[in-house]
Amino acid sequence: MISGLPFWLWAFCLFLPAMVISFWVVRRKHIFPYVYVAIFSIEYLSPEFLGDFFTISKILPIVLLVAYLLSIKGGLGLRSYRLFKPALILALYFIVSVLWSPVFMIGVERGLSFILLLISFWFVSHFTQDENGLQHFINAFVFISMIMSFLAIITFLNISSNESFIRAGVFKLHAIHTSFIITLGTIPLVVSFLFRKQKIWKWLSVRWHPLIIIMNIIGILTTATKTSLVVFIICFLSLFIIHTSSFFHLRKKIIVSIIVAIVFVFAVNIYLPIIDNFIFRLDNEQQYYLSEPVKYASGRLLIAGYALANFLDNPIIGVGLEGFKENWILSTANTNYQFQTSTHNSVLWALAEGGIIGTMLWLILILILLLSAIRATRISRYVKDVVLEEKSVCLLIMVIAILVSSMSFNIEFNKFFWITLALVESLWGLSNSKSLAVRAWKHHPK
């Protein structure tokens, strides 16, 4: 009973209007991607009477999926299964690994997350089988990054302090995940501003992109996250390698833009001490290292070492899904490190919980993902489709950002990773179809 009413009645009263709204949303391709991406940005928010497990990011996608299945007229197939197949095999293996996990029920719950992520993969891939759907999802990343940057700045203003450094997070997300989403959404803005092949939105001039990019950079700085700054730099260098000739042609524009951005950020720092806060954090860590060097240095190294120890305990099949976290808690009892933690690295996660088999499956998926994004970029150049090329470059840089981030925090259950995975799947299908069409035309021109 909830507030005097049975649970099923509450569920029905919420589900019925949700279905009606969902039918309206899924029929509008220019709205649905924004709703879907926004849902995963509020992952940890949920109605109080539903508890912590039934979050918005678990309930609403299912409602949208049901509405989508009832509304589509075509088949359920995808343009390509290049990424779906290895993702499916990976998920099935780790779901089966629950059988030898030390925490069976928690592992089952985590296994259900894999099922939901696979459904989300199919959902997004099926929706984005044309270029418009793909572009709308990329735009949705940009839109949510703008919202999160703005809210991160507001949060920073409300909680800033001269006594200690702060790390602004949005929608109950950790600061590093907040900065991760902002970074992903900033990449299309940078690509569009530099090459101007296609606008993010028709009503927004490309001239406004620098201001949005600067706002997003400020939003990232409010999180005081080192990883995102490293990712941002690596992404910019990757973009330079991909478009070396274009960078040389645009060198004046790029240099001026960088100088303006740096000056603007330092000017903002006078009123919004984002740089001072970041330096404060670095100083705080340095003092901690000088006072307790062994404890400071052993934090991440201890976690990495224990992940490898779990791997060596069962090198072929690993300790099973969620086994690392349970083993960590048991092994660190009565120590200064008794807290729940992840491996902070997706390869270490695969090694610890999946062994050699799980690691190979994970690396195969990542390799196919990266090669597909690279290949799609080359194909778009081959068919001389500048608009598709811009989408390809955006997604390739986003993939690089995700893979670099995975060295600092786990992405295997990150919903934005799986959405990007699905978008690359669709991109591969689109680019491959165009390549085949061009080759057929060259061999048999009309």
Could you characterize what this model shows?
The chain is globular. The longest helix has 37 residues, at 346-382. It folds into three domains: 1-76, no CATH class; 82-127 and 292-446, no CATH class; 131-281, no CATH class. It has 446 residues and is an all-alpha fold. The chain has helices spanning 7-26, 32-41, 56-71, 84-96, 104-127, 131-159, 175-195, 209-222, 226-242, 244-249, 251-269, 274-291, 293-313, 323-331, 346-382, 386-405, 415-443. It starts with 6 loop residues before the first helix and ends with a helix. The model is unreliable at 46-51 and 293-297 (pLDDT under 50).
What is the topological layout?
Elements: H1 7-26, H2 32-41, H3 56-71, H4 84-96, H5 104-127, H6 131-159, H7 175-195, H8 209-222, H9 226-242, H10 244-249, H11 251-269, H12 274-291, H13 293-313, H14 323-331, H15 346-382, H16 386-405, H17 415-443
Helix pairs in contact: 1-3, 2-3, 2-6, 4-5, 4-15, 5-17, 6-7, 6-8, 6-16, 7-8, 7-9, 7-16, 8-11, 9-16, 12-13, 13-15, 15-16, 15-17, 16-17
Keywords for this structure?
446 residues, mainly alpha, 3 domains, 17 helices, 72% helix, globular
Q: Hey, roughly how much beta strand do the residues contain?
A: under 5%
Query: What is the radius of gyration?
Result: 23 Å
Secondary-structure element pattern, one letter each: HHHHHHHHHHHHHHHHH
Structural class: mainly alpha
Count of alpha and pi helical runs: 17
- The count of DSSP E runs of length 2 or more, i.e. the number of strands, is 0
The protein's oligomeric status is: single chain
Uncertain segments are: 46-51, 293-297
**How many separate domains make up the residues?**
3
Helix content: over 70%
Distance between the termini: 71 Å
Mean pLDDT: 80
* Overall outline: globular
Sheet with the most strands, sense and barrel status = none
